[in-house]
Specification:
This protein is mostly beta strands and about 220 residues long. The protein is built from one helix and 17 strands. Strand 9 (about 100-105) and strand 10 form a beta hairpin.
């Protein structure tokens, strides 16, 4: 995969590309597991090419759960992202389960649970919101502040699912186990950065709300 600037100059290359995911600000990629590639081009892990500063960083995660699928538009990746943050999760027991939050603005991992910690949690689902990670375990739910890595709640009644422009956020009420996505329940918001797909028209969806902060600032919660 080659990357070109607006003037036509090549600014990056990722050889032996396998599954990939396009986000709003860049693209996450893995090498294909082919044995005839040179070692550098089959190095395991998820790498990130940032469209804004034209740099490749990684690996930022040991592997992805992309499988053989590639996400060609950033709206397809919306269930994994919240603003500049992306939630990466691996569920393979052989390769080691993990949960990581990566800041796509800096390319840095800001939160990470390795295979030992994930196994102890008996984790079923993970959702990303503003500052918080919402976990569904086999026996309970919890909310973790990913900045302090501390559990702040043992349940939630509200969580943000998408960060919009100018202080707006899409909120979901309840504990529905749908994908972390605007499109999972058929909701369509044709405003700012989001797009309507599959011929949907704008319509309200039960238990989903949009909120803005006081005075036009960012919404500050409560987040759970």
């Amino acid at each position: 995969m080659h990357f070109y600037d607006s003037d036509g100059a090549e600014v990056g290359e990722f050889r032996n590309v396998g599954p990939y995911m396009v986000t709003q600000f860049g693209i996450l990629m893995e090498h294909r597991p082919r044995t005839d590639a040179i070692p550098e081009e089959r190095r395991p892990g998820v790498f990130y090419f940032d469209f804004r500063n034209k740099t490749l960083v990684g690996p930022i995660a040991p592997y992805s759960d992309f499988g053989d699928s590639s996400f060609n538009t950033w709206s397809q990746a919306s269930r994994y992202t919240y603003g500049d943050l992306i939630l990466l999760r691996g569920t393979s027991t052989s390769e080691g389960q993990y949960v990581s939050i990566v800041d796509l603005g800096s390319g840095q991992v800001v939160f990470d649970l390795d295979r030992t910690k994930v196994a102890g949690l008996r984790l079923k689902e993970a959702f990303l919101g503003d500052r918080y990670l919402y976990l569904t375990k086999s026996d309970q739910r919890s909310v973790v502040d990913y900045q302090t890595k501390e559990e702040v709640a043992t349940d939630w009644a509200l969580r943000p699912v998408f960060k919009l422009a100018e202080g707006w956020a899409l909120l979901r009420v309840g504990h529905e186990s749908e994908n972390h996505s605007l499109m999972a329940s058929g909701i369509c918001i044709n405003v700012y950065w989001t797009t309507c797909t599959r011929g949907q028209s704008v319509h309200p969806i039960a238990n989903e709300y949009i909120a803005a902060g006081v005075g036009g600032g960012a919404y500050t919660g409560p987040w759970y």
